[in-house]
Amino acid sequence: MASNNGWVRGKRVLVTRPERQASGLIEAIQAQGGEAIRCPVLRIEPTVEIESAKQKIINLDHYDELIFISSNAVKLGLDRIADYWPQLPPHLRWFAVGKSTAASLGIEAIKAIVPAEGFNSEALLRLPELQQLTGRRILIFKGEGGRGLLERSFTQRGAQVDSLSLYRREVVNYSSEQLQTMFSAGFPDALIATSVDVLTALDALLGCCLNSYVERPLVVASERIAGVAKELGYQQIITANSAADESIVKALNVIG
Question: Of 7, 129, 141, 169, which residue is the least packed, with the fewest Cβ within 10 Å?
Answer without folding.
Answer: 129
